[in-house]
């Protein structure tokens, strides 16, 4: 979540959960998500790093 990241930076190690984003910003990213689903959805990495070709 670096604010000064450039296009050439290695993003393979910067994937974070929605919970981490919410903790840093104070926002509720998915406000209508049922409470019983919240921890499993917001607390899990989505796998974007693998889709970007990271190993």
TrEMBL record:
Keywords: Endonuclease, Hydrolase, Nuclease. The keyword Hydrolase applies. One of its GO terms (molecular function) is endonuclease activity. This is Endonuclease. It comes from Alteromonas mediterranea. The lineage of its organism: Bacteria, Pseudomonadati, Pseudomonadota, Gammaproteobacteria, Alteromonadales.
């Amino acid at each position: 979540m670096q604010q000064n990241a450039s296009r050439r930076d290695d993003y393979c190690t910067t994937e974070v959960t929605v919970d981490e984003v919410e903790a840093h910003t104070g926002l509720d990213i998915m406000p209508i998500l049922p409470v019983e689903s919240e921890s499993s959805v917001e607390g899990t990495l989505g796998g974007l790093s693998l889709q970007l070709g990271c190993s």
